[in-house]
């Protein structure tokens, strides 16, 4: 079922005219948290000193244009109605500093997701505000064994057919989102494009793309490259394992619990031999 729109406020619509996003009315941001369901906003916030955090209250996010989506199995078995704000609308309502072209979402457990501006337009990720009409103060909804609050970001092929072609759509569906960072891609991922990683082979470039869109959810990349902290393993450890025992690396990516029964990493059995070879090439900085 396709989404139906509701609760739109005049003047908040995002317009894409002549190849330019026109900004909507800004969502109010405060320097002090007002409640447990505030969304922290960090990074390159216009007119805010570097390093400072601002907060968007749930009720102010709820005043943005919203849609009600009927999705099957999003949180529990069966159909659920979720009230969402598309990230394009939130993007338009945030005071972005110069050059901002990426949203970085981080969760309370250290998980992370990367959303470049082109992804926002094509794959239409959305921020979940309500599940079956209930906001996060009433979560978890019946049938869900853990609490996904304060926020969930998700994607759906029902909303955007391009989602069906993603290698890892699950890495674009973080639960427990606490923070959005307004970022410049070239800054936050700079170390994956310079030094040993400046002149990669075509295979390694493919691996870099897989790393940024999937592996970065739990792992930081080379140097200061952005990545989640959930894995607890620095990139140097991943690099050492991949270099010393490539077959172990492949096995761990596909079926981590077969290597370590205590592994917390999600299995990726769908990765092809070529995709694993590309990942190894990136981690090892294979040159042109």
How many angstroms separate the termini? 47 Å
Number of helices: 9
* Major beta-sheet overview: 10 strands, mixed
Low-confidence stretches: 1-19
**Proportion of helical residues:** 10-25%
Question: From the coordinates shown, what is the CATH architecture of the largest domain?
Answer: Alpha-Beta Complex
State the domain count. 2
Mean pLDDT: 92
Which word captures the global form? globular
Word description of this protein:
The protein has 288 residues and is α+β, with helices and mostly antiparallel strands. The protein folds into two domains: 184 residues, Sulfite Oxidase, Chain A, domain 2; 95 residues. The chain is 24% helix and 22% strand. It is built from nine helices and twelve strands. The strands form two sheets. Strands 1, 4, 5, 6, 7, 8, 9, 10, 11 and 12 form a ten-stranded mixed β-sheet that branches. β2 and β3 form a beta hairpin. The longest helix has 12 residues. It is globular. The chain starts with a strand and ends in a 5-residue tail after the last helix. The N terminus is likely disordered.
Give a nutshell description of this structure.
By secondary structure, the chain is of the alpha+beta class. It has nine helices and twelve strands.
Q: What structural keywords apply?
A:
single chain, alpha+beta, Sulfite Oxidase, Chain A, domain 2, 10-stranded mixed beta sheet, 9 helices, globular, disordered N terminus
List the SSEs and their pairings.
Blueprint: E1 4-6, E2 15-17, E3 20-22, E4 39-43, E5 54-56, H1 58-62, E6 66-72, E7 79-86, H2 87-93, E8 102-107, E9 112-116, H3 117-123, E10 126-131, E11 151-154, E12 175-183, H4 185-188, H5 202-213, H6 235-244, H7 246-254, H8 256-259, H9 273-283
Parallel strand pairs: 4-12
Antiparallel strand pairs: 1-6, 2-3, 4-5, 6-7, 7-10, 8-9, 8-12, 10-11, 11-12
Helix pairs in contact: 5-9, 6-7
